[in-house]
């Protein structure tokens, strides 16, 4: 049985107060808090085990290398990859998606070639493709979402044309919580010889992910949302795609030999991991993955689904709350405005006085904001340690906002 109070006890920061109130942390979509297991792993790595990894022959270097490389099979299992070498260590989803842009797409795409993406993408899954538009004349084809915030997979499939080379989609919207049917899109893309890259930054946190079953080419995740350290993450790359990718960062560790007249590359994934890596960050991510898998991703998903349903029921009683994204199968992410409130920042400021952390702004999703016809929203994003009581605290704070702004 999922014991949320026991889970909460694993997170030291949840015992503090903010503005004299118990902290209610509902900004998990931006970055999640860290359990003691991660904090201890990072502290131990710096205090007792730190050295640079790979090629060192001394005890500490071998120990650090062992701890660092042990994270790769954990990520393989967490994402359901068929092979351990399909996991590239990154600083997060942004670096992973840029690796796809610079390393795979740029050398393969010409003026007039197309990339299909949805209007609800995070900027990390938009800006790298704009680079190709600006520099190489690549065309971006946008697919709109439905009225309830869902993305019809057939609409994406219908956007595929003879010049489409790549489909770039989020697996779960960071603003709406909408889950995208990646498997259906990927099957159609593969039948047409089109690659598919997925931003899994949100989905991998909230539900089990199996990249082999999804049958995608690239899948990016970020560690700081997975209850791990910032500047940690990974990119899954289908092994068959490796020969098509050129390195886009050069330096140590990604080479076998450097000569005056040429270079011999290291084997993937190390070919794409140049320089001294985020050693401690990745060790911390490994501890976070251990923590999450120990709880069970299905159990986490079920707990968050209960929070989603309870929050949705409470929000439906607030007829002055404008909720964006209402699909019943969405993640526990809620973006909203309040009638009469001047700006989302005003809402977040009032809510913060109650000790409740939410995010206000455009959430790095400006095309989506334009599509929704709003300048900004407040976002409450729930995680594995949140409770129904915290939903009630949020609703009480929103009712106060309504009183102040009406």
From TrEMBL:
Keyword set, alphabetical order: Pyridoxal phosphate, Transferase
Keyword Transferase (UniProt): yes
Cofactor requirement: pyridoxal 5'-phosphate
The Aminotransferase class V domain, residue ranges: 24-394
E.C. no: 2.8.1.7
Reaction catalysed by this enzyme: (sulfur carrier)-H + L-cysteine = (sulfur carrier)-SH + L-alanine
GO BP terms in the entry: cysteine metabolic process
Stretch forming the signal peptide: none
Enzyme class: transferase
CDD domains, sorted: SufS_like (cd06453)
InterPro entries in the cross-refs: Aminotrans_V_dom, Cys_dSase_SufS, PyrdxlP-dep_Trfase, PyrdxlP-dep_Trfase_major, PyrdxlP-dep_Trfase_small
Keyword Transferase tagged: yes
A Pfam match: Aminotran_5
UniProt similarity note: Belongs to the class-V pyridoxal-phosphate-dependent aminotransferase family. Csd subfamily.
NCBIfam families listed in its UniProt record: sufS
Entry protein name: cysteine desulfurase
């Amino acid at each position: 049985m999922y014991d949320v109070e026991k889970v909460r006890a694993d997170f030291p920061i949840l015992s503090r107060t903010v503005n004299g109130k118990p902290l209610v942390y509902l900004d998990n979509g931006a970055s999640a808090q860290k359990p003691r297991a991660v904090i201890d792993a990072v502290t131990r790595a710096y205090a007792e085990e730190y050295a640079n990894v790979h090629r060192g022959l001394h005890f500490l270097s071998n120990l650090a290398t062992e701890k660092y490389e042990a994270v790769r099979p954990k990520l393989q299992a967490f994402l359901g990859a068929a092979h351990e070498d399909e996991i590239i260590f990154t600083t997060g989803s942004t670096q992973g998606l840029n690796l796809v842009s610079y390393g795979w797409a740029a050398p393969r795409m010409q003026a007039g070639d197309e990339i299909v993406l949805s209007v609800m993408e995070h900027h990390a899954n938009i800006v790298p493709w704009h680079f190709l538009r600006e520099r190489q004349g690549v065309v971006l084809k946008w697919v709109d979402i439905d009225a309830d915030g869902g993305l019809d997979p057939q609409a994406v499939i219908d956007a595929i044309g003879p010049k489409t080379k790549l489909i770039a989609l989020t697996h779960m919207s960071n603003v709406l919580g909408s889950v995208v049917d990646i498997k259906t899109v990927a099957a159609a893309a593969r039948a047409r010889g089109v690659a598919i890259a997925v931003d899994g930054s949100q989905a991998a946190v909230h539900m089990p992910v199996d990249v082999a079953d999804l049958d995608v080419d690239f899948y990016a995740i970020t560690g700081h949302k997975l209850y791990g350290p910032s500047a940690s993450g990974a990119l899954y790359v289908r092994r068959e795609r490796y020969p098509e990718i050129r390195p886009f960062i050069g330096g140590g560790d990604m080479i076998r030999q450097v000569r005056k007249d040429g270079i011999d590359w290291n084997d993937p994934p190390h070919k794409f991991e140049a320089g001294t890596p985020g050693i401690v960050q990745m060790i911390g991510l490994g501890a976070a993955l251990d923590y999450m898998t120990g709880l069970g991703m299905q159990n986490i998903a079920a707990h968050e689904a209960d929070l989603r349903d309870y929050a949705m029921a409470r929000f439906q009683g607030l007829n002055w709350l404008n909720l964006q994204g209402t699909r019943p199968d969405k993640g526990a992410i809620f973006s909203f405005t309040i009638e009469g409130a001047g700006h989302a920042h005003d809402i977040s400021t009032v809510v913060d006085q109650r000790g409740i952390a939410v995010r206000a702004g455009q959430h790095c999703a400006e095309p989506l904001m334009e599509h929704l016809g709003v300048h900004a929203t407040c976002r409450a994003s729930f995680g594995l340690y949140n409770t129904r009581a915290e939903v009630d605290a949020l609703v009480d704070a929103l009712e106060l906002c309504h009183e102040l702004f009406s």
